[in-house]
Design a protein that fits this description.
By secondary structure, this protein is of the alpha+beta class. Helices cover 45% and strands 12% of the residues. The protein starts with 14 loop residues before the first helix and ends in a 6-residue tail after the last strand.
Length: 275
């Protein structure tokens, strides 16, 4: 695929342009999905078969079957994800707008990384207070956020003690367990991995650096963004692992939370790819 130019410096996005950039970012994401399904999926399916043909004596039929099944399941998920995006009302409206416009047909090349620019637009138009001015939730606010998220989101499991302050809260995401506690001294929520291993610790370390630690609802939504951590590829480079064999640990909110989508929509990046 052609090289995509990234936004450089502190790009200021005019509010009137934000909607257009969001639409371009969506098209660019679907373009990448088509590329992955057209090239990466066949390679994933044919790779195990190629190894079995080259070295038939050293191959294990059960391992071959597991590899092909995993590649097929991942491919089905990718196709279903693309189908949902393709049939979404906003995509249909976007195509209607494009077909109604008097524009020329461009080349199959993205000259600008609109997904990064869309993230910038979301960030620059955000009305949140500066980091040092944001106060941790009151107990009442935390309880409302906890109950609302628990009722609407099923990709993580939440459990809180039956006590007046409701803390600590146990969070399970992708079979990894974490404990959240309230620390009014530092004006944040603390995050402790209960499950051993490097990945839970890396997630906890990443969340500890984030602004979302100030508000329980945002923090739980940030946790939910890791529900497919072992399958989610980087939205910039398109790879699952970086050169250090690490997963994309950075999550950036691209679509704000709403009643229809309590967790919002998040982009995933490797540390080196993060905008």
């Amino acid at each position: 695929m052609a090289t995509i130019m990234e936004p450089t410096g502190d790009v200021m996005v005019h509010p009137e342009d934000a909607a257009v950039i969001e639409q371009l970012a969506k098209l660019q994401q679907m373009h990448q999905q088509i590329h992955d399904l057209r090239s990466l999926l066949p390679n994933a399916l044919l790779g195990p078969a190629r190894e079995s043909i080259i070295q038939p004596r050293g191959s294990n039929p059960s391992h071959f079957a597991v590899s092909v099944m995993k590649a097929a399941n991942d491919g089905v998920k990718g196709i279903q994800s693309f189908k949902q995006d393709w049939q979404a009302p906003e995509t249909r409206q976007l195509f209607r707008d494009a077909n109604a416009a008097n524009t020329t047909q461009g080349s199959d090349t993205w000259h600008m990384d609109y997904r990064s620019l869309a993230t910038t637009a979301t960030r620059t138009t955000n009305t949140d207070l500066p980091r040092e001015d944001i106060q941790v939730d009151t107990i009442e606010e935390a309880k409302i956020a906890f109950e609302s998220f628990k009722q609407n989101e099923r990709k993580i499991k939440l459990q809180a003690p039956d006590s007046p302050d409701m803390f600590p809260i146990d969070v399970e995401v992708n079979r990894m367990h974490f404990r959240l506690d309230r620390d009014e001294t530092s004006n944040t929520y603390t995050i402790e991995p209960v499950t051993g291993g490097s990945l839970p610790q890396q997630i906890a370390d990443q969340l500890t650096q984030e602004k979302s630690r100030k508000k329980l609802g945002k923090l739980l939504a940030h946790f939910e963004a890791y529900h497919a951590i072992r399958l989610r590829k980087c939205d910039k480079c398109g790879s699952l692992l970086d050169s250090d064999l690490k997963l994309p640990l950075v999550r950036k909110l691209t679509t704000e939370r709403s009643s229809e989508n309590p967790a919002g929509r998040w982009a995933a990046y490797h540390m080196a790819c993060s905008p």
